C-alpha cells in the first residue's frame, strides 16, 4: 500500500450519488498486472466520511427507488444485459489485465454474472407474494415481499465481474439500494460494469461504490443504515464479517473457503474424467472457490495417475492475453509466495510430487506470478496441502478403498462448498448425492455452480447465513415478508358482536 498523493497512473474512482468521485484519502493500493508487474492504476482506501456519504446517498435514494414500479426496474436490467453483451470484449480485456485469467475465461467470468443480470430482469415473476382467499368468514390473507433498505456487498479478487453481478443486480431489482466494496486488488472491471449500470438507467444513489481494506469493511458491518450484507471471500474475513455484522443486527450471507473433492470411481470414463479434472483444477490458475483441489481415487482409479500427469503437462502457461493460454498467473506476488511455500510443505509432509510446476519458463513474461500445474499423490488428511485452501494450480491426489471411505473423508473435512463424483453407476451417484454433506454436488460435472434459476448452496464452514446468493433464496434475503390479514364489511354484513377469543370467525 502506498500513501503518495500523486501518481502517474490513473486513480480508481468512488461512486457516490451517481457521481464518480476522486477520493481524498492518503492511502492507496497499486492495481498490478500479475503477468508483467505493470502498475495499471491505484485504488483508494476510502475515508470514513466517503463511506458515510455513500451510505447516506443510498438511504436517500431508497425513499423513491422502493416505489419504482417493478416493470421499470426490470427494464433497466434488460438494458443492462444488452450493454454487457455489447462490451464483452472490452470488459474481458480489463479483467485479464488486472486479474490474470485468460481472455476466454474472463469472458466466462462475465457471462456467468450476465446470467444473473438476466435473472434480475425477470424480477416481476420472482418478487411475488402469496394469497389465501377466505381463510375465515370474509377474511383473506396475503403476503408482500418488500425491499429492506440499504444493502452492501463485499467481493473478492478472483471473480471481479461475476460476483459483483451476483449481488447488486438482484438487490436493486428487489427495490433496495446498494453500496459495493470490490476487491482492492482488481477493481477496474467492476467499475466499468458499474458505469454500464448507470448507462442502463440505474438512478443516482441507488448503486454506490467504495474501495478499501479492513477499515472500510468494518464501517460497512457497523453502519446502522445498512440492513444486509453479502460477502464472498476467505473464511477468515467472512467469519469476521458475519459475526460483526450480525451483532449489529444485519442480515448476512457469507460464501467462504473451500476444499473441493472429486471422487473418481474406476468405472468412470477415463478420458472425460481426466480432462474434467485437469480443467477444473488448473483453470484460472486454481483461483476459484469451486476449483477441484483434491481428487479421491477409489480402487483401481489410482492407476490413472500417469495419464493425469501427462494431460496436465499439455497445458500452456502464459499471460492471459496470449492465444492458446490455459493457465495464467496467480493474482499477486504474495499469492505466488504462499502457493510455493505450500508446495514445499507438501514435499516436507511426505506427499509425492508427481508434477512440479514451480518456476516455469514463460518467455517475455519473466516477472509474472506464474506457477505451472502441480500434482501431489499420496496426500492424506493432516498434511498442509490437504488442510489448507491453496488457491493455486495444485491438485492433491488421495486414495480410498471404497466409495463409502471416500464419502467419509469428504464429510470429515470442515468445508462444504462443492464436490463431484465421476462414475457410470447410477446407484453410486445416488448414494453419493444422498450421503455427502456438501452444498453443491456434481455428477460427472466437475464445477457444479448452479445456474441462476437455483441458488448457490455451500454449507458447513464454507457458508455462514441460511440463504445463498442469487436464485430464489436471494429474493428472501433482499426482501421482508409482510403478512396482511384483511376483512371488509358492507351494510349487509350481520353484526357478530364482541369476540374476545383469538380465533377468526
UniProtKB/TrEMBL annotation:
CDD domains: ALDH_F6_MMSDH. Residues 20-484 form the Aldehyde dehydrogenase domain. Its EC number is 1.2.1.27. Gene3D superfamilies: Aldehyde Dehydrogenase, Chain A, domain 1 (3.40.605.10), Aldehyde Dehydrogenase, Chain A, domain 2 (3.40.309.10). Keywords: NAD, Oxidoreductase. GO terms for molecular function: methylmalonate-semialdehyde dehydrogenase (acylating, NAD) activity. InterPro entries: Ald_DH/histidinol_DH, Ald_DH_C, Ald_DH_CS_CYS, Ald_DH_N, Aldehyde_DH_dom, MeMal-semiAld_DH. It holds the Pfam family Aldedh. It is an enzyme of class 1 (oxidoreductase). Belongs to the aldehyde dehydrogenase family. This is methylmalonate-semialdehyde dehydrogenase (CoA acylating).
